[in-house]
Amino acid sequence: MNSVLRNLLMLLSFPYSYKNNLSNRNDSKIYKVILKQLSSIKITDKNIKKTHLEFNKKIRNILVKKELTNFLKIGFLQKIFFVHNRLFIFFELLELKKKNWKFYKPLLKESPVGNPVRYFLYPDSSGNTINHIYHLSVLEDCFGNKLKSINSVFEFGGGYGCMARIFYYLNKKIRYTIFDTPIINLLQYYYLKSLNLNVGYKDNQFRLINKHKDLKFRKNKKNSLFIANWSLSEVPLTFRKKFIPTIKYHQFFLISFQASFEKINNYKYFQELSELLNKKFVIKIIKNKFYKGHLFKKEDHFFLIGVKK
């Protein structure tokens, strides 16, 4: 039923469909790198829950088949990574217009890579991009943080790379690290490389990592941000614990989470995490006033936001 509703909502954007010309130019070179990496990757359930284990298997399948030109039109991928024609997005958009439209409007311009569904009430952008920028505006509202001043970002679970692209628009010199599964790293590689960004697995401007041992940080780094949009809240508790020191390394953090996930009480968990961090951070837990889940699963969602004292 969810997939049927999602497809019906996509039809609202039909008049604004755009032909994807950008990614076709470099696809053969990009796929060569992807397939080479893919040959050595084994999908395990060690650090991910069942929902994401199955998702990684499906992503691997489209990587093998080289079916990425229109990947943001694929239903199962949209379910996890991409918000499109939902009504709550319109209220987020209105909120951005009230806050600082001159600043946020240029950031909303969508990229053609992956052929994303354009938001039917604002076709210059997509629901997903609007949603991401709204989240950043919540951080800015809380602590008066100037987003343009952020020069280093660590994103736990980077989706397909949308947030990384937004930060590149904010700061062309941004240093950006994405931690994710090896399979999702390859999807991010495709997306960011198609935008001609410096992305890779070494000392690139956009660095992709999937092993905890590869994390390297300077403590108390100024103008740095840890961000996790519905990602830290969807991995096993033992794995979350490994990244608490990573949060502490940064000046700001922004974590989005749902009240529960696969029998884990997330609200209780993040309350306890805030108590653990409050000696070094000023912390707020804010209820997401626009997003309440979907038609078949109503649920409260929250932001956990912090700035170093």
Structure description:
This protein is of the alpha/beta class. It has an 8-stranded mixed β-sheet, sandwiched between helices. A two-stranded antiparallel sheet has the order 1-2. The chain has helices at 2-10, 27-38, 50-64, 75-81, 87-104, 127-143, 162-170, 182-194, 237-241, 244-248, 266-277, and strands at residues 118-119, 122-126, 152-156, 175-179, 199-200, 206-209, 221-229, 250-258, 260-261, 264-265, 281-287, 293-294, 297-298, 301-308. The protein has one domain (2-308): 3-Layer(aba) Sandwich (Rossmann fold), CATH 3.40.50.150. The longest helix has 18 residues, at 87-104. Strand 3 (152-156), helix 7 (162-170) and strand 4 (175-179) form a beta-alpha-beta unit.
Write the layout of secondary structure elements.
Elements: H1 2-10, H2 27-38, H3 50-64, H4 75-81, H5 87-104, E1 118-119, E2 122-126, H6 127-143, E3 152-156, H7 162-170, E4 175-179, H8 182-194, E5 199-200, E6 206-209, E7 221-229, H9 237-241, H10 244-248, E8 250-258, E9 260-261, E10 264-265, H11 266-277, E11 281-287, E12 293-294, E13 297-298, E14 301-308
Parallel strand pairs: 3-4, 3-7, 4-6, 5-6, 7-8
Antiparallel strand pairs: 1-2, 8-14, 9-10, 11-14, 12-13
Helix pairs in contact: 2-8, 3-8, 5-6
